[in-house]
UniProtKB/TrEMBL annotation:
InterPro entries: 6-hairpin_glycosidase_sf, Glutaminase_GtaA, GtaA_central, GtaA_N. Keywords: Signal. PANTHER family: GLUTAMINASE A, GLUTAMINASE A-RELATED. Residues 1-19 form the signal peptide. SUPFAM superfamilies: Six-hairpin glycosidases (SSF48208). This is Putative glutaminase A. It comes from Exidia glandulosa HHB12029.
Length: 700
C-alpha cells in the first residue's frame, strides 16, 4: 500500500505546498470548497481576503454552520488545525492552500511537524456508481520538518449542525462498524422525506466515517467534553451517549482520534482517511404517467443500503483519488490552452456545479438501466430551489457536453417526459420540472411559482436535445419526443423573431420585449429543429425549419444591428442599447453555421472598448453582469488577447476578497458588488471554451 503514500507525497509537491509561507493556488477564492458532493453535502470555508483552515467554522452553502473540527497533538502540544481553537489548543501556521477540479489541499505547520489536509470530492462521470455517491474524503498526512521523529495524534469531529439550520431540531444517532470502517450516523428524529427548510432537506443520514487503523478511539457526547479530553489526554474514552436530543442541547458531537505513534521526515505510510456526507435512500419525487414515482440514488443499483455504499466509498479511496487526479490533469490540460487563469476559473466552477446534482433510478432497479435521470437544484436565484430549470441546464450545457453526454440526456429527459404527457397546458416548454427541490412533480401553468419563459425554455430544450444527439450519436430522444419538439418549434416559428415582453434566462432581470439575444436563441433553436428533422428522416420538416431559420437570421441581423453597424442592440427599438451576445455561442456548439461571420467580428470589436474592472456588463440597462455569460460571449471570438483580458478581469473579481460565499456569478462589473446569489450551478457555463474545443477537435 506504499502506492498511496507516494501518491499523496507527489500531490503535495506538485501543488507547491511545501513552501515556507502561506501560498494560495491558483488564486484566493471567496469561499473554499471542502466537502461538495451533492445539494446537501455542500460545505465550504468562507474565505474573503484569506481565512486559514483553522480561522473559521465550515459552512453550508447558505452560510449556516456545518461544524467540522480537527486538532493534532505533537509531542504533547495540541494544535487547532481545522475550525477555531478549542480550549487551550495552540494556533498553528498555515503554509498553503491549493484547489483543483476535485480537491482542496491545505498544509499546516504545527511546530516540528507539517500536516497536509486534502479534501477530495471525486468526479468520475465514467463510473456512474462512484459519480452518484454523495460523499467526500478528508485525507490527513503528516511529516516532520526538522528531520526528527515526533509523537503525533490526530482528532476530528462533527456536530449535528450538519443536519439542519434550526438547532431546535431533535436528532438521533448510532455508531456502526464495517469490515474496514468505523462510522457515526446521525439523523433528524422527525424524518420528513422530500421536504426542505432553509434550503436543507429534512430527511436522510449524515455519515462521518474513518478507515480503520491501529490505535483508533471514538466517542459521542457534548462538544466541549470530547474536545477537552483530546486536548488533555490525546485520546478518547469510548463513551457513546444516547439520544435523541436537540442539536443545541449540549451540542451532540461525533469524534474520532488516532494515535499515529512516531512520525519522521518520511511521513505516514498511509493517510488517515475520513469520509463525510449527507445521504438519502429516496432522492426525488417525479411525476410520470400521472403517478408520483419515488426515485433513489443511482448507486443503489449496486448497494442496497446507505451504509454499504459508505463502506464501498471508504475502501475505494485509492481508486477514487487516482481517477480524480486524471480528471484534474485532463481538465487543466484543456483549459490551459486558453490561459492559466481560465484553468483556475474552470477548476473552481467544477466543484460548485457538481455539488448541485443527484443521479437517480426508480426504486428496485439493479444493474444497468436506461431509466437514469439527473436532477439539478438551482440555488440562490429568482427561482430558488427549482428543479431542472431548462435555462439552468442550458447554462450548464458546456459541462455536460464535456464530461459525459449521458448526463445531458439524464438532465433534459424529465422535462421531455413530463411535457409529452400534455399536463402543462401551453404550447411552449415549461420552465422547470418543479418549483421546489426535490419534487419534480411538474409545473402548474399560472401558479405563483410558474415563471413562463416561452421563447427561452422552448429554445433551450430544442438546442440541448440536438446537442445530445450530435455528441453521443444516440438519437433516442429525437425519435421518442419528436412530436413534442416539433410543437415547441412551431411555437417559436410564430414568436421568436420579435419576442413579446417576457423573461429570458435571468429570472432576476426585468421582462422586456424585442430582446435581440433572446430572439437569436429562438432562431438557432429553429435551425436545430431542422437538424432534428433531418436526423429523423422528416424531410419536409427539415426543409421547412432550415429555410425558416435562414430567412429569420437575415431579418434578425437587420433588426438587431445598430444603425452605425458597430454593435448588436439589447432591444430592436433602442439603437443606443447593447448586450453581450452570449447566445451566439449555441450556433458554434451545434456547428450550424447559421450566424454570419461578420456578426461575431462586430461584437468582438465592440467588446474591446467595454471591458470593466471585473468583466463585461451584460447589457446597457444596468451595471451588473453574469460571469458564465461573459465567458460564452467571448468564447467564439478570434482575438485571444481580448479573451484572456476578460478572463483575467473575471478572475480578478473572484479573487478580490469582496465576497465570502461560494462563487456568486451575478455581480456589478464595475465594483464587484455581489447580488446575493451564490453556489449556483450555472457556473458550469464557464467551460464554454473547453466545450468549443471538443466540438472543433472531436475530443468527445
Amino acid at each position: 500500500m506504499r502506492v498511496a503514500a507516494l501518491f499523496w507525497s507527489s500531490f503535495a509537491l506538485a501543488s507547491g505546498v511545501l513552501a515556507a509561507s502561506w501560498k494560495t493556488g491558483p488564486f484566493n477564492p471567496p469561499a473554499i470548497p471542502l466537502a461538495v458532493s451533492s445539494p446537501y453535502t455542500s460545505t465550504w470555508l468562507n474565505n474573503g481576503n484569506g481565512t486559514a483552515l483553522f480561522g473559521d467554522w465550515p459552512h453550508f452553502w447558505t452560510g449556516a454552520v456545518t461544524a467540522w473540527l480537527s486538532m493534532v497533538n505533537v509531542d504533547g502540544t495540541t494544535y487547532a488545525t481545522m475550525a477555531p481553537p478549542s480550549g487551550s489548543a495552540t494556533v498553528p501556521k498555515q503554509l498553503s492552500m491549493k484547489f483543483t477540479s476535485t480537491s482542496t489541499v491545505f498544509v499546516i505547520r504545527c511546530g516540528p511537524v507539517d500536516f497536509t489536509y486534502t479534501f477530495l470530492s471525486p468526479i468520475d462521470t465514467d463510473d456512474l456508481v462512484r459519480f452518484s455517491l454523495p460523499f467526500s474524503y478528508l485525507y490527513i498526512t503528516a511529516a516532520s520538518n526538522d528531520g526528527k521523529a515526533h509523537k503525533v495524534k490526530v482528532y476530528s469531529d462533527i456536530t449535528a449542525e450538519w443536519l439542519a439550520t434550526d438547532n431546535n431540531e431533535k436528532v438521533s444517532w448510532s455508531t456502526s462498524e464495517g469490515p474496514h470502517t468505523m462510522g457515526h450516523e446521525i439523523q433528524l428524529a422527525d424524518q420528513r422525506p422530500f421536504q426542505e427548510t432553509s434550503q436543507r432537506i429534512l430527511h436522510g443520514t449524515v455519515f462521518f466515517s474513518i478507515l480503520k487503523r491501529d490505535n483508533l478511539t471514538y466517542r459521542i457526547g457534548p462538544s466541549g467534553d470530547l474536545r477537552d479530553e483530546f486536548v488533555s489526554r490525546g485520546t478518547l474514552t469510548p463513551l457513546l451517549e444516547t439520544g435523541p436530543r436537540a442539536i443545541k442541547d449540549r451540542w451532540p458531537t461525533f469524534a474520532f482520534a488516532v494515535d499515529l505513534g512516531s512520525v519522521g521526515a518520511q511521513g505516514l505510510a498511509e493517510p488517515v482517511v475520513f469520509g463525510i456526507g449527507h445521504a438519502r435512500d429516496k432522492l426525488v419525487q417525479f411525476n410520470t404517467k400521472g403517478q408520483i414515482q419515488e426515485r433513489v440514488p443511482y448507486f443503489m443499483t449496486r448497494y442496497t443500503s446507505l451504509r454499504d455504499a459508505m463502506e464501498f466509498f471508504m475502501t475505494d479511496h485509492e481508486n477514487a483519488a487516482r481517477a480524480a487526479a486524471l480528471v484534474d490533469a485532463q481538465i487543466e490540460a484543456h483549459a490551459k490552452k486558453v490561459s492559466d487563469n481560465y484553468a483556475a476559473l474552470v477548476a473552481l466552477s467544477m466543484r460548485q456545479a457538481f455539488a448541485a446534482m443527484e443521479l437517480t433510478v426508480p426504486i428496485g432497479t439493479t444493474g444497468d438501466t436506461d431509466d437514469v435521470l439527473l436532477f439539478v437544484r438551482q440555488n440562490s436565484a429568482g427561482y430558488d430551489g427549482a428543479i431542472n430549470g431548462v435555462d439552468v441546464l442550458y447554462a450548464m450545457w458546456p459541462l455536460f457536453s464535456y464530461v459525459n453526454p449521458r448526463l445531458l440526456k439524464a438532465a433534459i429527459e424529465p422535462t421531455l417526459r413530463y411535457a409529452a404527457e400534455d399536463v402543462y397546458p401551453s404550447n411552449f416548454c415549461l420552465r422547470s420540472a418543479g418549483p421546489h427541490y426535490p419534487n419534480a412533480t411538474g409545473q402548474a401553468a399560472g401558479d405563483d411559482m410558474d415563471h413562463p419563459m416561452p421563447v427561452e425554455a422552448s429554445a433551450d430544450i430544442l438546442i440541448l436535445t440536438l446537442s445530445h444527439a450530435q455528441i453521443s450519436g444516440d438519437g433516442s430522444l429525437l425519435t421518442t419526443y419528436y412530436a413534442q419538439l416539433d410543437k415547441w418549434a412551431t411555437y417559436l416559428q410564430d414568436t421568436t423573431l420579435t419576442p413579446t415582453k417576457q423573461e429570458q434566462g435571468e429570472t432576476f432581470a426585468d421582462s422586456v420585449a424585442k430582446m435581440s439575444n433572446l430572439a437569436v436563441k429562438g432562431i438557432i433553436a429553429i435551425a436545430a429543429m431542422g437538424e432534428i428533422a433531418k436526423m429523423t428522416n422528416h424531410t419536409q420538416d427539415a426543409d421547412k425549419y432550415s429555410t425558416m431559420a435562414r430567412n429569420y437570421i437575415t431579418q434578425w441581423k437587420s433588426l438587431a444591428m445598430s444603425k452605425d453597424g458597430k454593435h448588436l442592440t439589447f432591444t430592436y427599438d433602442n439603437d443606443n442599447s447593447y448586450m453581450i451576445g452570449f447566445n451566439l455561442l449555441a450556433d458554434k456548439l451545434l456547428k450550424l453555421g447559421l450566424v454570419p461571420d461578420d456578426i461575431y467580428a462586430t461584437q468582438q470589436s465592440w467588446y474591446e472598448a467595454k471591458v470593466s474592472p471585473y468583466g463585461l456588463k451584460a447589457d446597457s440597462r444596468y451595471g451588473w453582469t453574469v460571469s458564465n455569460w461573459e465567458i460564452w460571449a467571448i468564447a467564439y471570438m478570434k482575438d485571444a488577447t481580448l479573451q484572456r483580458t476578460v478572463i483575467d478581469h473575471i478572475v480578478a473579481y473572484y479573487s478580490s476578497g469582496i465576497g465570502t460565499v461560494p462563487m456568486a456569478n451575478y455581480y456589478e462589473a464595475d465594483t464587484g458588488k455581489v447580488h446575493q446569489f451564490q453556489a449556483r450551478p450555472d457556473v458550469a457555463g464557464h467551460l464554454a471554451f473547453i466545450a468549443l474545443q471538443c466540438v472543433q477537435s472531436s475530443l468527445i
